[in-house]
TrEMBL record:
A Pfam family assignment: HTH_38
Residue span, Transposase IS30-like HTH domain: 5-43
Domain of life: Bacteria
Name of the protein described by the UniProt record: Helix-turn-helix domain-containing protein
Domain Bacterial mobilisation positions: 116-135
Length: 196
């Protein structure tokens, strides 16, 4: 007597393919070490997953760490969402909006990159003048004005770093709003399902 065990999604697909090719149920039961009833159940399950437009639904399986899953559950819990699968479905439907590049941020970062390149060029020129003077044995042309220029360049770099942080925070807020919109209406007090 075959042992009673659960078939994996991949095994169910293989059973459906083999049965479609005419392999007898008895042979499939032996091949997969399950009962004939389990084979029939797997075949019926495959038929039941047809949606209204007669296309097959897909079952997604993914592996995540316990830490990542706890983080996802916590994020859903903060939004009052009980079912992972519903949340994943909504996020997939909103993926086009969520994963779209932020054009404004891209332009701002491009401008900052150009400004940072100018700062780098200025620092290189100062370093070149200092190295040339050193190689010629001359007194280093590093004056109070040079020091003020370097301090100004450093200040510009720190300002740019602050601007990048603010862009990051703004983008994160925008994404949070988009995720909230995508998950709108899922908040319930029902029990959490265990499938992803």
């Amino acid at each position: 007597m075959p042992s009673s065990r659960r078939l994996t999604d991949q095994e169910r697909r293989q059973i459906a393919l083999q049965r479609a090719k005419g392999v007898p149920v008895r042979e499939l039961a032996v091949r997969f070490s399950v009962s004939q009833k389990t084979i029939y159940n797997a075949l019926n399950h495959g038929r039941a997953t047809r949606s209204a437009n007669d296309s097959r639904t897909c079952v997604l399986t993914m592996r995540v760490s316990d830490r990542d899953l706890r983080g996802f559950d916590a994020a859903l819990s903060r939004r009052g969402i009980a079912h992972r699968s519903d949340a994943m479905r909504r996020l997939m439907l909103a993926a086009d909006d969520l994963l779209r590049p932020d054009e404004m941020m891209t332009e701002e970062l491009r401008a900052m990159s150009a400004a940072l390149n100018r700062v780098g060029n200025n620092v290189n020129q100062v370093a070149r003048r200092l190295n040339e003077a050193k190689l010629k044995g001359e007194r280093l042309p590093y004056t109070a004005a040079s020091h003020a220029e370097i301090r100004g360049l450093a200040g510009l770099v720190f300002d740019m770093a602050d601007q990048v942080q603010e862009l990051f925070r703004a983008r994160r807020r925008a994404l949070d709003l988009e995720v909230t919109e995508a998950l709108r209406g899922l908040a319930t007090n029902a029990g959490r399902d265990c499938s992803v």
